[in-house]
Amino acid sequence: MLKNYLKVALRNLARNKVYSAINIGGLAIGIAACMLIFLYVKDELSYDRHHSKADRIYRVTRDFLSDDGSVSLHLARVAPPFGPLLQQDFPEIERIARTLHTVLTVEDAEKQKTFREEGIFFAEPAFADIFDINMLKGSAHKALQEPYSILLSDKMAEKYYPYEEAVGKVLRLNETLTFKVSAVFKSFPENSHMHPDFLASFSTLNDTTVYGAEALKTNYGNNSFPTYLLLQSDEQTKSLQAQLPAFLDRHLSATDHARSHKPSEFTNLYLQKLTDIHLKSNLDSELEVNGDIDSIMVLGAVAIVILLIASINYVNLSTARSTSRAKEVGVRKVIGAAKHNLVLQFLLESVLITTIATILALGITELALPWLNEFTGKNITTALLSDKWVLLLVLALPLVVGVLAGLYPAFYLSHFQAATVLKGSLSSSSKNPMLRKTLVVLQFSISTVLIIATGIIYQQLMYMQQKDLGFDSDQLVVLPNSSSLTPKYEAFKAELMKSSAIQGAGRSLLVPTDQLLNSMGAQVSKGGSMAPTSTTIKYVAVDHDMLDVYKVKMAAGRNFDRKFASDDTAAYIVNEAAARMIGWHDPNMAIGQTLSYGGNNGRIIGVAQDFHFESLHKEISPMVFMISNSQGYSNISVKVAGDTKEALAHIEETWQEFLPKVPFSYQFMDDLYEKSYQDEAKKGQIFTIFSCIAIVIACLGLFGLASFTTVQRTKEIGVRKVFGASVSGIVALISKDFLKLVLFANLLAWPIAWYAMRKWLSDFAYRIDISTDIFLLATLVAFAVAMVTVSYQAIKAASSNPVDALRTE
């Protein structure tokens, strides 16, 4: 019996090649898109889960509150004293490890090769107990106990010592600190929220020339230390979290904040699950750019939508073709086939189609994966198919989709009465046009929502790229500073300025990018006494030239000036946002006011016009600029005035003259800003691509349905042509019904798209207004796509010989 069902199913597929191709092709594309999204989503959800104790590992975070109780700053890092104190006060904490991430130059002392490295971490020995570190040589725990000991990843060992043993070698960090290579570990997997290339012993920081033991115990203002803890049980999280306010009140002095006798009323500590960091955390001072759980949910929804549209195509075409299979059903019923036999046959046919489609989809997925990896920067492979859950999905997909998509057509076809169909009295009115119309409306409603969403995403990205940032980013070259350049910086700058292609140069701790700013407590003079500000003010250390190089305009007061010696130690410039937050709505009111920042008193000499230092996701933060000691500058910004090629050659030549051992590297400020929106751009492009796939599948279904409709109306078209109907009139007649459905679909799609995209835009502090133009454009696109899809079949039918059409009777 089953063999016969299979033979009939294959015969039907071969007999109806066009419909079979549309069904199988649409399902194959839909399933392939679904698989690609599933592999991407699975990779995103797998972050940090490779650690055996992942369910018990937490990161400690810290926030600061404004006067109104709202969070003004939430940091992914905390102050160094908290680690030992937490371990001391809470026995439920099994292990705790402080880390410090930094960017330094690394020099091979023997070969004198120097590189600027971004993956340097100082870590306590407990780091090796909390995280699973795959050691290739040596012991991580032992190596992290000894001062001036460092572990290399296998990539760094290969980079610095390609043909020799790395363990026992000597590296010099920041040109002053000498470390012995004690061990080599396998690089952390790509699906990790951090990727250390170097793990240096935390005890090295006790040296006062590096940081200082006393500062590690007492400095609660330097929130630069990512801190991780391992609980004895993950069930202890809530009880430990509830005790953290009292912990802060015990250890933080009440004088740290004049508004409250309880420090816990202005700052809090939180425990964040390790496996939540990548997708559910976008805090200040994150180690790397994280993902977004909302984007993952949207992609998952798109995958379901694509599969739904492909399944709708199958249901639509199967029910539309019902009359062509009516006699087959009638004959089978006459010779004794029961209803359940017919249902089983049609379900088997449906499962066969989805099985063929799934096999094709696996091939498409294999071919498309390299593109997806290149596009997303991931390394996803079909080796994931060996995963039991992925394998289960692949095996279950044909059965589940086949049964669900084939269930209605199977029952619908098996419902025909034998006597009726064998008499030939099953007319077109016997079919169920309402269902097919509903499904077409559903398909195009979804497609229109996707078109509108794609348009709004594109408009927002263009807005971010073109928005006035408040400073001149054109032809700004950013160089990483070097500690050995510090004593000879003025000579370096003077040499740079000898070229007419160089307009200016300035140093700063940070440069305007999406990198997050540091923060320290601020107090202002009010009524003769110092009072804390209601919101945290972020700061950037700059030299006298930095703001001029970026052409930041002053709203009041003046810029830093070397003529005033006090500018080096007791002067601040705030931005307009900081002045407004403090209560000075006229920028001139701020000039001359006393400001204490990080414990240093000074006077405000200027108010800079607001400019975007951070991403457009955030409102412009209250900021303060100050002159730092020469060690506080990590970047040199050079303004190019003339030919860029000539300027870069001169900068490199000057760099090599002053720093022959340090590799020359640079970035353009425009490129840095473009990189800061790269994640949004990629997500937008991925969404656009899969939206287009959904629309193509919908068009395939519409094409098949239009083809079948014209065949069903062959006699009507022939009669109309005999009575003088024109080709254009017949095309309009056939297209009209479909276009009505598309119009109705658009009316349904508009409110859904408006609500969804308004919610998406709410994540941006600076965003476009949703205009009706994009909705009208989406409707025109939907109409054009539908018209082109239907017109081919309509014109073909209208151009046929009416004699041939009437012979169909």
Automatic annotation (TrEMBL):
Q: What is the protein name stated in its UniProt record?
A: Macrolide export ATP-binding/permease MacB
Q: Which InterPro entries does the record cross-reference, listed alphabetically?
A: ABC3_permease_C, MacB_PCD, Macrolide_Exporter_MacB
Q: Which GO terms describe its cellular component?
A: plasma membrane
Q: Which residues form the MacB-like periplasmic core domain?
A: 20-245, 445-642
Residue ranges spanning the membrane: these are 21-41, 296-317, 342-369, 389-413, 434-458, 686-706, 741-761, 773-795
Q: Which GO terms describe its molecular function?
A: ATP binding; transmembrane transporter activity
Kindly give the membrane topology term recorded for this protein. Answer: Multi-pass membrane protein
- Quick one: where is this thing mainly located? membrane
Please state every residue range assigned to the domain named ABC3 transporter permease C-terminal: 301-416, 689-802
Which keywords are on file for this protein? ATP-binding, Cell membrane, Membrane, Nucleotide-binding, Transmembrane, Transmembrane helix
**Cell compartments where the protein resides:** Cell membrane
Q: Does the keyword Nucleotide-binding apply?
A: yes
